């Protein structure tokens, strides 16, 4: 992996040179991990004029399952507690010469920015912007492999839950059980807080599980994800509990399924973000559900569960191959419940079979 991290840092260095700078300070944790491997909490990466350094508040953490820092990087540890690695890194950048340091202004607090400026007053601070996030959008096959394994783990955990008795159990209990099963199957942990919604709570995006118990005839919607070697995937499914679905449940489910399929089928290199959103959204709009729809149809996944690109009505940009995204339309009817169907896929060209579906749990409307 050392060559991979070095290549990523070189791509960022080229962007810095193109923008007129020679050094960069990366502080956002996911970006540090992308460029340097697993690092202690609070570590920053200095992309220096003469040498790249990983500046840490303490020794690297020995967690082999999660990986280690790039062995090609020199690690600089702070001499004592209480120091700020970002400020120390800026001081090291000044010692390497040069007159400009690009920083991630969207991540640094105002206090940290002021502290850096006070330590290196002669160094001009520029904004690195989202340069690293832009590099992270297209994944290599090793990254996609981690997402694929995470998706398999999430599928396993969900499949096992569906084989158990659900009636009478609370949303909170089911969410905790799912998260335990993720870890049992090899995940680092959940990719985000698991959402379980029953009855009137079903289909709500980001629903926090409550003590409501599963009842016969309920819609049950579940959204979970696994983290594997730092990479996060997502899956969401909706089921009916204990009986044959009612007509309104079948109708609503079929509608959301059609919207989700339209979104999935529109994933292709060169497709605009807004066109993918429109493909799914117009199915729901035409059925009279324009009000209350989520602000986006999907988003990128990777080292964070919600990263670029955003598949939304006003989003600018086009998809590339090897970009993993979610497609997750849903409809919630206040007081009755709703449906959400959510998959993680990788954009692939038609010649390679089209979008690769990572989350394969059935999308049939099952009565459990």
From TrEMBL:
Residues 190-211 are annotated as: Disordered. Residues 8-138 form the Creatinase N-terminal domain. InterPro entries: Creatin/AminoP/Spt16_N, Creatinase/aminopeptidase-like, Creatinase_N, Pept_M24, Peptidase_M24B. It comes from the Bacteria. Pfam families: Creatinase_N, Peptidase_M24. SUPFAM superfamilies: Creatinase/aminopeptidase, Creatinase/prolidase N-terminal domain. Residues 146-348 form the Peptidase M24 domain. This is X-Pro dipeptidase. It comes from Streptomyces resistomycificus.
């Amino acid at each position: 992996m050392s060559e991979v991290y070095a290549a990523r840092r070189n791509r960022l260095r080229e962007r810095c040179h193109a923008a007129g700078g020679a050094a960069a300070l990366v502080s956002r944790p996911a970006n540090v991990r992308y460029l340097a491997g697993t690092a202690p909490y609070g570590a920053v990466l200095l992309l220096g004029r003469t040498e790249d350094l990983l500046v840490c508040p303490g020794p690297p953490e020995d967690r082999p399952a999660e990986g280690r820092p790039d062995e090609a990087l020199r690690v600089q540890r702070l001499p004592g507690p209480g120091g700020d690695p970002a400020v120390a890194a800026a001081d090291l950048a000044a010692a390497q010469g040069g007159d400009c340091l690009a920083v991630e202004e969207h991540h640094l607090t105002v206090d940290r920015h002021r502290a850096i400026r006070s330590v290196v007053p002669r160094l001009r601070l520029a904004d690195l912007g989202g340069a690293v996030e832009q590099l992270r959008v297209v994944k290599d096959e090793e990254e996609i492999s981690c997402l694929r394994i995470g998706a398999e783990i999430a599928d396993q955990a969900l499949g096992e839950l569906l084989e158990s008795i659900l009636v009478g159990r609370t949303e909170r209990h089911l969410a905790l059980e799912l998260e335990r099963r993720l870890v049992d199957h090899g995940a680092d942990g959940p990719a985000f807080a698991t959402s379980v919604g029953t009855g009137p709570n079903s289909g709500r995006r980001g629903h926090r599980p409550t003590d409501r118990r599963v009842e016969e005839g309920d819609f049950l919607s579940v959204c979970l994800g696994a983290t594997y070697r730092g990479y996060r995937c997502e899956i969401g499914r909706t089921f009916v509990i204990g009986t044959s679905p009612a007509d309104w449940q079948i109708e609503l489910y079929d509608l959301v399924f059609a919207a989700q399929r339209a979104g999935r089928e529109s994933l292709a290199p060169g497709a605009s973000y807004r066109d993918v959103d429109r493909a799914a959204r117009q199915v729901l709009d035409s059925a009279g559900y324009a009000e209350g729809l989520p602000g986006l149809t999907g988003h990128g996944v990777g080292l964070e569960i919600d990263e670029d690109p955003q598949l939304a009505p006003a989003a600018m940009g086009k998809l590339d191959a090897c970009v993993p995204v979610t497609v997750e339309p849903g409809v919630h009817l206040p007081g009755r419940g709703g449906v959400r169907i959510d998959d993680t896929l990788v954009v692939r060209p038609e010649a390679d079979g089209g979008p690769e579906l990572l989350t394969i749990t059935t999308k049939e409307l099952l009565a459990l």
